[in-house]
Design brief:
Layout (H helix, E strand, L loop, with lengths): L5 E13 L4 E12 L19 E9 L12 E5 L5 H14 L3 E2 L12 E6 L2 H7 L10 E2 L3 H6 L17 E2 L1 H9 L2 H6 L3 E7 L10 E7 L9 E8 L8 E2 L5 E3 L10 H10 L7 E4 L23 E5 L1 H12 L14 E10 L6 E2 L2 E8 L2 E11 L10 H5 L6 E4 L5 E3 L9 H6 L11 E2 L10 E11 L20 E5 L9 E2 L18 E5 L2 E3 L2 H4 L6 H7 L1 H7 L4 E3 L3 E11 L12 E10 L10 E8 L4 H10 L5 E4 L4 E9 L13 E9 L10 E2 L3 H4 E6 L28 H7 L4 H9 L2 E3 L2 E3 L6 E5 L5 E3 L6 E3 L9 E9 L8 E10 L2 E7 L6 H5 L12 E9 L15 E8 L9 E4 L14 E8 L18 E7 L8 E11 L24 E5 L13 E2 L1 E2 L7 E4 L13 E10 L15 E6 L9 E4 L3 E7 L4 E2 L2 E2 L8 E11 L6 E5 L4 E2 ...
Parallel strand pairs: 1-11, 5-8, 6-7, 6-20, 31-32, 39-45
Antiparallel strand pairs: 1-2, 1-12, 2-9, 3-4, 3-10, 10-11, 11-13, 14-15, 15-21, 16-17, 16-23, 18-19, 18-22, 23-24, 25-26, 26-31, 27-28, 29-30, 29-33, 33-34, 35-42, 36-42, 36-51, 37-38, 38-41, 40-41, 42-45, 43-44, 43-46, 46-47, 48-49, 49-54, 50-52, 50-55, 53-54, 55-56, 57-58, 58-64, 59-60, 61-62, ...
């Protein structure tokens, strides 16, 4: 004896039909056996489910209380077995057996996966449709990145675990589930039984209530029955309406425990069977998961319009079915919805069209269900999926399941079953006559049109509202509207003519003159959606075999493509950021229209015309302005012609501008130029040709010499600049200095241009430089090659843009003074530095390329000769591919100054004082004399060897005379030669003699002898400066004069240091004043000065003596003589000057000659009282320990005379 078979019974509400005479509740009763439908229900000898006649007891319970199995049924309905039911099940079993499948008599019991949760991402279209506010299903839905992250498959291991193979056994439950998907078969099998229940007393249902059905007395004995009740709303007499059962309630002996408030609310919302929140969108990008799709690619196939509805509610219902946790998991409230029906209409019209209709003859084996070709609606199911990543992380069951973002999409055909045309185009066969297939919707999906969508719920019996039934319960978005646009980018056009391949570098190439181009193909369903073909489906079918032979997908010429976008690209350099593909960068874009053709089959014939151009930017304007006629291409470039199909943009038809243009095909082309004149830009002379003389580096472990205060040092070392001056002027590294002078940079010993500038280097062989393969840098093998020689730098600006390739491999030849010194290659590659930062504003750096050629010239004069300036002459000869007309070779020269210092070193033979002629007043007067200019003269052992040279001197330091002032002063180190260190001396073309360094020393004044060895030393300060009282240290050198152009560092030879030179002191001045009592004379004491400050003892160390003279006329009257009238008088300092002060600044001594003595002396000499008188002052140095009483008379010569004043006339007294 077998096990009795359980039965589940669910009544699905369909409609309330009521008039003045009668009222009916239409339902579709679903009864399913939980076991074999062909075995006895009682497990013994009784009838099977398929052959059973049932007596159905209908219970209608008004009110809100959950129903129980108590009470009296409203009525009993006899439902006999259907004639084909048993045979239908048996035929299904036979067909399964024919396929190798067998019915499993004891299948495992279906269980909810433990720990399961169903979630859904809410797309923006849903959020906008319902004005989304979180709250209804917080933990079940998301608007963030959860869904995207889940599909990224985080945690997937390195190996793939395949799914288990399907079992060869199938349960009857699976067979029944498949039957329920086809309502006609489900009804023929007796699973679905349409019933009309008459409600004799309409008041029974006016306030709503529950309806359930049980098997009554007289029905076959079964196992347990699972009874569910459906709730109906308030039903009023005479007011018919459609009904729907969104949720079922369990019917038990006593009220089922639990909170069913939410279910009551759901029934109120959905008891009319219509979706309340319909939303839709059209995919604009290929990626449908990633939320930020601004940079994603467009769809490659038409994806139609995506549809969704009631996302939160559907997620809640799905969780109730699947989840084993949560507040609703314990409630036995199965949803009544098996799937959904979608209707469409063109916006502005009234007729709806179902997108879920199918038709066919229902014949199963020998069983013909009759009716010929029958139509029915099939539901659109919604199934959650679990990301594979969870299973791969070891979660074998349960876990998080996700509902799709959108539940379905419409591309033109029905939403159910296979798209028959798509199957045929894929190489399949059409659906056999009579077999079930989707019907063609009454609406056609066409670009540029808007469509309305509504969604109907379909229950497990195939019931639910119909297309034109009214919406009873309002919702936020019962109808969604979408403007359908084209987001499918056209494919690449095809070339009908043969074109040559890309040429090898410097190899001959045949120039093309014409290209024939066809429209690209557009595939299904997009080509149908254009609406441009009246018979698109038949034409597509005709292309199936042709497409298969060509190895492509069937398609038709894209009718939206009306012209070609032609982008002419020139080959630039690898990794060029302006390159759109590989090393090709676009130079101009133009269009050409396709010829008018209703079949869209005629090709476009594109003629080619060649033109010489220095810069493709200049070519661009003219070429882009032409939209008809030949395509003009620049010569001397490797070109690639990108040809893309494009459409005229219509905002209501195309999704965006970028959709209108598709990918390109490529055609390579090249032609040698015919005219290459004006190859070089004439730069400023200072930019075009210059020369550099670099001083060698100061060793890192050796600073420039700085002599100690009392150290004469190494004289020759004073030529070098100090380490601090080097750092202040330029980098200490010689290569860095050279690069900085050129505006370049150095990395190690490699010189490179600044970022953004393309420079091609070349160098003479004598420089031993290594040029990079791309020509963008030069590496110096040794620094010796850079120092103490002229580096001539020729800089040429090639006025051809970076795409030009008209040079031969050896691009430019350079000769100096008739001898070839090097060649420059013009590589078809540039450094990353050059191409990465080339700016687009201002002067286009890509329009030119700078050529830098460096030559090395030895500046030393030949042995036995004196240094002379140099005048190298260079000739630049470009070499082209082909034989274009070109300019003559470019010639340029430059004058270079002397850089070799004089080799002669000065040697002193003697020295003395040279004085200017004596000047007095004109005879016969002799009352005063002018101060005499005095200079030191130096005599050298030999005259100057080089006629361009002279002797020079400069002051190294001075100190005060210790006899006059403070002797202990702080001495500074001897200074280096104050000339430009000329770490980098630059000479530009056309530069004149700049006398560099000439002012660093003072040229000595030669005597009138020829040749001479005697020279006067000019005073270092003003003749009145007190610093002349001190001692001076001088440096003497032989240097080049301004007769020859010399650099500062090459100006002077080795020095001779001379210590202790004392210049003639400042002129002593005397003041005289005549009063009634006598003549007062005064004069200042010598004051010692050091660095601008007075340094002296507290009391003067010199004495001032004053003498008075009278003028006596010679006997012949021709002149006068001065006679000392009175003995010399020592001057005295006034009392205020005798104060002992730390520093003495302006002590004046004075003496008075009494009138009585003067008159007496005059009378004694025989002069009258009005004789002309003059005075003179003499300053004597200190006398030591022995006092000198009469230094100017009896003791004359025992004390040093420091200085004397001139003769000063005594003013006449009135």
């Amino acid at each position: 004896m077998g096990t009795p078979i359980d039965i589940a019974i669910l009544p699905y509400l369909q409609a309330w039909r009521s008039n003045t005479t009668s009222s009916f509740l239409d339902i579709r009763l679903l009864s399913t056996p939980r076991g074999s439908p062909v075995d006895p229900l009682d497990g013994a000898t009784g009838v099977s489910f398929a052959a059973a006649d049932f007596k159905l007891e209908v219970h209608v319970l008004p009110g809100d209380d959950l129903p129980t199995l108590t009470g009296t049924p409203l009525l009993t309905i006899v439902s006999p077995a259907l004639p084909n039911s048993l045979a239908l099940f048996k035929e299904l079993a036979n067909q399964l057996a024919a396929k190798g499948l067998s019915i499993d008599p004891n299948p495992p019991k279906a269980q909810r996966p433990p720990g399961s949760l169903v979630r859904k991402f809410l797309p923006p279209s849903y959020q906008n449709a319902v004005n989304y506010v979180p709250g209804k299903a917080n933990n079940l839905v998301t608007t963030g990145s959860d869904y995207c992250c889940a599909l990224k498959m985080n945690g997937i291991g390195s190996s793939y675990t395949p799914l288990d193979p399907p079992s060869s056994k199938i349960a009857w439950g699976q067979v029944i589930a498949n039957l329920l998907r086809t309502p006609i078969l489900a009804e023929a099998a007796g699973l679905v039984r349409p019933l009309s229940i008459q409600i004799a007393d309409p008041t029974l249902v006016k306030n709503g209530g529950f309806l359930f059905i049980t098997l009554g007395t007289g029905s076959p004995k079964t196992g347990a029955m699972k009874i569910y009740a459906t709730r109906f709303p308030s039903l009023l007499p005479g007011k018919s309406r459609k009904l729907y059962s969104p949720v079922f309630f369990p019917v038990l002996a006593s009220p089922a425990p639990g909170n069913y408030v939410k279910m009551f609310a759901e029934i109120e919302d959905y008891d009319d069977g219509w979706a309340k929140a319909v939303h839709c969108t059209q995919p604009e990008q290929l990626n449908r998961v990633k939320q930020d799709v601004s940079n994603d690619i467009r769809p490659v196939k038409e994806m139609g319009i995506e549809l969704g509805w009631d996302d939160e509610q559907v997620t809640i219902w799905t969780n109730r079915q699947l989840a084993d946790t949560g507040p609703d998991a314990a409630l036995d409230v199965p949803p009544g919805t098996a799937g959904y029906a979608v209707d469409v209409r063109q916006e502005g019209t009234t007729n709806w069209h179902s997108l879920v209709t199918a038709e066919g003859k229902f014949v199963l084996g020998i069983i013909d269900l009759g009716g010929g070709v029958r139509q029915m609606e099939l539901p659109v199911p919604i199934n959650p999926v679990r990301p594979f990543a969870e299973k791969n992380r070891g979660i074998s069951t349960g876990g998080t399941f996700w509902l799709p973002i959108y539940y379905t999409r419409w591309t033109g055909p029905a939403l159910v079953l296979d798209d028959e045309l798509a199957v045929i185009l894929a190489g399949g066969k059409a659906v056999a006559a009579g077999n079930l297939k989707a019907t063609n919707p009454g609406a056609t999906l066409t670009y540029g049109k808007s469509y309305d969508f509504q969604v109907r719920f379909m229950d497990h019996t195939g019931g639910g509202p119909q297309t034109n039934d009214p919406h009873i319960t309002p919702g936020p978005s019962p109808i969604a509207t979408q403007l359908f646009k084209r987001f499918i980018v056209p494919l690449a056009p095809t070339i009908a003519s043969t074109v040559p391949a890309k040429p090898a570098l410097f190899s001959p190439f045949t120039a093309i003159t014409q290209i024939s181009v066809n429209r690209p193909l557009l595939q299904y369903p997009a080509v149908v959606c254009t609406g441009k073909y009246t018979n698109a489906q038949n034409l597509l079918k005709q292309d199936v075999q042709i497409a298969a032979a060509a190895g492509r997908e069937p398609g038709l010429p894209d009718p939206d493509v009306d012209r070609l976008v032609i982008t002419v690209e020139a080959e630039s350099f690898p990794h060029d950021p302006l390159a759109t593909d590989g090393s090709f960068q676009p130079i101009f874009v133009t269009t050409r229209p396709f010829p008018t053709d209703p079949t869209f089959q005629k090709p476009l014939l594109l003629d080619i015309q060649w033109q010489d151009q220095a810069n493709v930017a200049t070519h661009r304007a003219g070429a882009e302005s032409q939209t008809s006629g030949p395509l003009t291409l620049p010569t001397a470039r490797t070109l690639r012609i990108r040809i893309a199909a494009t459409c005229t943009f219509n905002n209501g038809y195309f999704g965006d501008q970028d959709v209108c243009t598709g990918p390109s095909i490529y055609v390579t082309a090249r032609k040698d130029s015919t005219d290459e004149r004006n190859l070089f830009t004439h730069l400023l002379p200072s930019e075009q040709f210059s020369a550099y003389f670099l001083q060698p580096d100061v060793p890192s472990n050796q600073a420039a010499p700085v002599p100690a205060p009392n150290n004469t040092g190494n004289p020759a070392a004073l030529l070098l600049p100090t380490a601090s001056s080097i750092a202040a002027v330029a980098p200490s590294d010689i290569a860095s200095r050279f690069a900085a002078a050129l505006g370049f940079r150095v990395v190690g010993s490699t010189m490179k241009p600044q970022t953004g500038n393309r420079v091609v280097f070349g160098c003479a062989s004598g420089l031993r430089g290594i040029i990079a393969p791309d020509g963008s840098s030069i590496t110096f093998g040794t620094k010796i090659d850079l120092g103490l020689r002229w580096l001539t730098v020729l800089r040429l600006l090639v006025t051809r843009d970076w795409t030009w390739d008209g040079f031969q491999p050896q691009a430019i030849s350079i000769s100096r003074d008739g001898n070839n010194v090097g060649t420059i290659k013009f590589p078809r590659v540039a450094s990353q530095d050059a191409i990465s930062a080339a700016s687009a504003g201002g002067v286009d750096p890509r329009a030119t390329t700078e050529i830098v050629f460096i030559d090395s010239i030895n500046p030393l004069p030949p042995p036995g000769t004196f240094p002379q300036t140099l005048n190298p002459k260079y000739v630049v000869t470009p070499m082209f591919q082909g034989s274009p007309t070109a300019d003559p070779p470019f010639t340029i020269s430059i004058e270079l100054p002397v850089t070799t210092p004089p080799s002669q070193v000065p040697t002193l033979a003697s020295a003395g004082i040279a004085m200017a002629p004596y000047v007095r007043d004109q005879a016969p007067n002799y009352t005063f004399s002018e101060p005499r200019q005095k200079l030191i003269w130096l005599e050298f052992t030999s005259p100057l060897a080089d006629p361009h040279d002279a002797y020079f001197a400069r002051v190294l330091r001075n100190v005060p005379d210790p006899l006059l002032g403070v002797s202990e002063v702080e001495l500074q180190p001897l200074p280096g030669l104050p000339i430009d260190p000329e770490l980098v001396r630059q000479i530009v073309q056309g530069e004149a003699n700049d006398s560099a360094g000439l002012n660093a020393m003072t040229q000595l004044i030669p005597s009138d002898e020829t040749p001479t060895t005697r020279f006067a030393l000019p005073l270092p300060v003003d003749t009145s400066s007190p610093e002349l009282f001190g001692f001076w240290t001088y440096e003497l050198r032989v240097g080049h004069t301004n007769k020859i152009w010399s650099t500062a560092q090459g100006r002077f030879g080795s020095p001779l240091l001379v210590n202790g030179i004392q210049h003639p002191p400042p002129q002593l001045t005397v003041k005289v004043q005549q009063t009634t009592s006598g003549i007062t004379t005064s004069a200042p004491h010598a004051v010692s000065s050091f660095r601008g400050s007075v340094v002296a003892f507290a009391f003067p160390r010199t004495t001032l003596w004053f003498m008075i003279y009278v003028q006596a006329t010679q006997v012949d009257g021709a002149d006068s003589r001065n006679i000392l009238l009175l003995p010399p008088v020592q001057g005295k300092i006034p009392a205020r000057g005798r104060e002992r002060r730390p520093l003495f600044s302006d002590s004046w001594a004075s003496a008075v000659f009494d009138n009585t003595r003067i008159l007496s002396a005059l009378a004694g000499f025989g002069f009258d009282s009005h004789a002309k008188l003059s005075v003179m002052a003499v300053e004597m140095t200190a006398s030591g320990t022995t006092p000198i009483i009469d230094p100017l008379a009896a003791d004359l010569g025992r004390q040093r005379i420091l200085r004397t004043s001139g003769l000063t006339a005594v003013p006449q007294r009135c």
